[in-house]
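Before surveying the methods themselves, let us examine one representative protein, pairing a chain with its fold in token form.
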Amino acid sequence: QLRPLRTAFCAPRQRVSCESMKNKKRLRSQVVLPDNPPAVEALTIGWMLSILLLLIFDVVTYGSRSYLANVDNTNRGVQALYAMCFFAGLVSAAICVLLTVLVHRMRHDPPPKNIVRFAIFLAVLPFVMVLVNLFA
């Protein structure tokens, strides 16, 4: 049995026209998430920048640490770079953890889980390095 063309692509048991299905799809595509206030957006951007800064500090810290351990232990410039980036990484890690908690609480929609996991992973690394330095 042939159905009229305008209902040919609808589900067979439903008496819904294709026009109403198009309207439902259009309404679904127009669903707008609640906007965050500008202060929360600024906090989110600051959080992302702190993650990036912490990543840079961690890479430079571990790179200079491996240089000191494997190549030249007496290089004063690299020792100073290591110490400065290590301390800055500790401070950035504390700020990053604080901002992670604030962003998670203040946003209407939570931040992506993978980014939160990455931020926590990067924030834990400097403190693990402290423990390694204490017990090594």
Summary: Helices lie at 18-29, 38-70, 76-106, 113-135. The mean pLDDT is 83. The radius of gyration is 26 Å.
